[in-house]
Design goal:
mainly beta, Tachylectin-2, Chain A, Jelly Rolls, 2 domains, nine-stranded antiparallel sheet, seven-stranded antiparallel sheet, 42 strands, globular
Length: about 525
């Protein structure tokens, strides 16, 4: 029996894992997608289900205006003193690192918060602001009852390392008040880009686990240890404890940013992020995913280095292909779906305004950083199809609604209904692509009759095609153009922009006239053709 990696397909790390009794929980990043943070639950480390998205109120999170791939980064989940504790970063500004080709000042805003709950699926507290000194915050609960906040330190000065080391400061978990001064406890190894700290205590040693080498193909999990929490820390003598940086042919690439958990039987497992490049384009359309594997401790109290593994011993862990129809019959949005940035979803959509439909209100362009009516679910396989049925009566070219394959504001394919200057309804694909300085194209118009229309997308690795039909028993009519699905990936990007989220597929409605024209969607199908390629 085996666990097949990645265990969370299409769900972006950076993973934080914790065990409470016989239950395991993994928290992963959501970036600009609302609600914030995703927590999956398992009893066997192989089979996982989405249990909670805790940041669901305006008092906890408001990301309007946040750049693409900013928002919620690298949340940390822990359990202490009878409560779950969640630490997260809300990234407000990414910033540029060069001026005219030279290294310049890089001003960025990273706000770190703490929330707590007695239950993983309960109501989480309002946030307490902790600091804004860097990202990737995490809690360490020492065996003397004290708790410590760790995070990487961001140094914006042009003559310094951007990643200024790992800092620690005591925190009072009754109030969220920070105690004493922050101290740099580890400056990192020559791999650089030291981030993602997690601290553990074992046999009198403080073991510090960090991510280094950047989040691309040089990513690595690195360890250091000390007898005191404040160091000095000695880096692992054998180098990274897990990486694919020297294995370009490995199926799991970009492996890094890990967190350890111990089973009731005393086994140690490492959850970490990874990416699976498409063979032809070498691009990761599923973004950064979560993998897990057992690790061994040596007699010298160092964790033994290991290679990333596709299959590891454990219970049956093969995830069947997803086949889901969301009929929008309830008052709440189905769990698989998210929207972008705003904590005011009532301005974007309604499931009660028209029974049996999801109504989207046309807002800003779907590339907006503030308020767009776009509801989508994660792409979790290399081969899938998605389908919806929409009723929409556009009056002019500024109104559009339809089916979208979306990565961020600079890359998406949008099959939409709109109208020409004579008010005739038509279908087109708007493609916004990360080519050169950025390219925006419209496919040739296809005129369609009034009434409901079904829209469909089929994706096979790099290839994407769109179709439509006006009656349920009619044959699909396919657009003649094949679109590039691989451009909706982390690797395809405009210069200087972060790309962390992975692909989504969903529905959208925009009304650039400000009129708020609504579109009604009756269902959304998402069907995977097979298990993801290995």
């Amino acid at each position: 029996m085996t666990i097949r990696n990645p265990i969370l397909r299409g769900f972006n790390p950076d993973p934080s894992i914790v065990r409470v009794g016989g239950d395991y929980y993994i928290a992963t990043s959501t970036f600009e997608w609302f609600p914030g943070v995703q927590i999956h639950h398992s009893r066997d480390l192989a089979n996982w289900s989405l249990a909670a998205r805790p940041l669901c109120r305006a008092s906890q999170l408001d990301m309007r205006g946040n750049p693409d791939s900013c928002g919620v980064w690298a949340s940390d989940l822990s359990h202490a003193h009878g409560r779950f504790h969640l630490i997260y970063t809300d990234v407000k500004r990414y910033g540029r690192t060069t001026v005219d080709g030279a290294k310049g000042v890089s001003l960025r805003d990273f706000h770190n918060y703490w929330v707590w709950s007695d239950r993983i699926d309960g109501e989480w507290s309002d946030p307490v602001h902790l600091n804004s000194s860097g990202f990737d915050p995490a809690l360490f609960h020492d065996d003397d009852g004290r708790s410590w906040l760790l995070n990487m330190l961001w140094d914006h000065r042009p003559d310094r390392k951007r990643f200024g080391g790992i800092v620690a400061q005591e925190i009072d978990l009754t109030t969220g008040r920070m105690i004493g001064e922050r101290r740099v406890i580890f400056e990192g190894t020559p791999l650089g880009f030291t981030e993602g700290p997690h601290l553990y205590k074992r046999n009198g040693w403080y073991h510090l686990l960090v991510a280094e080498g950047g989040t691309e193909r040089g990513h690595a999990v690195v360890m250091a240890r000390a007898r005191s929490l404040f160091g000095p820390y000695e880096a692992h003598p054998d180098g990274p404890v897990l990486t694919a940086r020297d294995r370009p042919d490995a199926a799991l690439q970009r492996t890094g940013h890990g967190d350890l958990v111990e089973t009731p039987e005393g086994e140690t497992w490492l959850a970490y992020l990874c990416g699976r490049p498409l063979p032809a384009s070498d691009r990761c359309v599923l973004g950064r995913e979560t993998a897990i594997q057992p690790m061994l401790w040596g007699g010298d109290d160092w964790l033994r280095p290991a290679a990333p593994q596709l299959e590891v011993p454990g219970p049956a862990g093969a995830t069947p292909p997803i086949e889901a129809r969301d009929a929008f019959t309830g008052p709440d949005l189905p769990m698989a779906f998210q929207w972008l940035r705003t904590p005011r979803p009532e301005r974007l959509f309604s499931l009660t305004e028209r029974a049996g439909h999801l109504r989207l209100y046309g807002r800003e362009t779907i590339g907006s950083l503030f308020e767009q009516a776009l509801v989508a679910r994660r792409q979790q396989a290399f081969r899938y199809h998605a389908e919806t049925s929409v009723e929409f009566v556009p009056e002019h070219f500024q109104q559009a609604a339809g089916l979208v394959c979306y990565y961020n504001s600079t890359k998406f394919h949008f099959l939409h209904l709109t109208a020409d200057d004579a008010g005739r309804r038509l279908l087109q694909v708007l493609s916004v692509l990360p080519i050169g300085e950025g390219a925006t194209t419209l496919s040739a118009p296809i005129y369609v009759d009034d009434g409901p229309i079904a829209l469909r997308v089929e994706v096979d690795h790099e290839a994407m095609r769109f179709g439509f039909r006006s009656a349920a028993d009619a044959a699909w009519q396919w657009l003649g153009e094949t679109f590039d699905a691989s451009l909706l990936s982390d690797e395809a990007t405009l210069p200087g922009l972060p790309n962390f989220t992975g692909g989504f597929v969903g529905i959208a409605c925009q009304d650039m006239s400000g009129g708020g024209l609504a579109a009604d969607f009756r269902y959304f199908d998402y069907v995977e053709q097979d298990e993801p390629s290995r």
